[in-house]
Amino acid sequence: MSSKERRTVPPEAVDLYTQYIHGEISRRSFMNRVKKFAVLGLSANTIVQALMPDYAMGQQIARDDERIVASYVTVPSPQGHGYIRGYLVRPYSADSRNETSTPLPGIIVVHENRGLNPHTEDVARRFALSNFMAFAPDVLTSVGGYPGDDYQGGQLFSQLDPDKRFEDIAAAALWLKNRPDCTGKIGATGFCYGGSISNQLAVRLGDDLAAAVPFYGGAPGAADVSRIRAAVMVQHGALDTRLVEGWPAYEDALRSAGVTYEGHIYPDSVHGFFNDATPERYNEASATEAWRHTIDWFNQYVRA
To answer: What CATH number belongs to 65-303?
Structure first.
């Protein structure tokens, strides 16, 4: 079933949800403004419930799947908040429960601006089943971690110093790269905030990052693009107009800097199209294609 056939609420209501979950409008404003879309038999409450994430529905790989080994690890971050906790996942093997196991390429998976929610952990497990070691850090660690509610997570997120948040993730990336069970080659991917951070990591880490795949994330400053050494694949939804309109300038900067790159714009896809836990944003065809591109990119530039 296509996203158009499945979608039950107007695209304008989906945009309202995006503004709300990004902290651009309050919960009260979101609820009040949704009411004007309560037509054609849909109540405001029905629309709100349709827009909220359903993490059980979006789970593709169970937490206790026997094909993976997963744990929570706390990583030092002296330039950030002192430490950051994250979710570390590897494919299962006879020696995968210790750091002497067969080295694998590593992928940092950076969440949206709500903290390490179940969707991001599920994406990390998907990487493990593609034979990568994945680490998904939680920038909310210093304020108690992801609280189990996306809105509350967003409120906590906004209270943290942006520079320290970034230092925490940079520390997590270098920690992953230097683990004895990592090959020493890492990639970064992320969604919205995490997409922007993936771009920033490419600038910051230079040769220490082999590849980046930002999903609907803001581009780095044009003057910083020349510092990128990673292979960059940018992924946007065509209906995510603000970011799509900014892509040509980023592409020009990447080309001018001699960076290896690709860009993909997926039709009929909004901001958050990859997130299968939010069905009114999710576009299955686009998400499937984007995941294939992501794995191919990391296999080419991180595994090689």
So the answer is: 3.40.50.1820
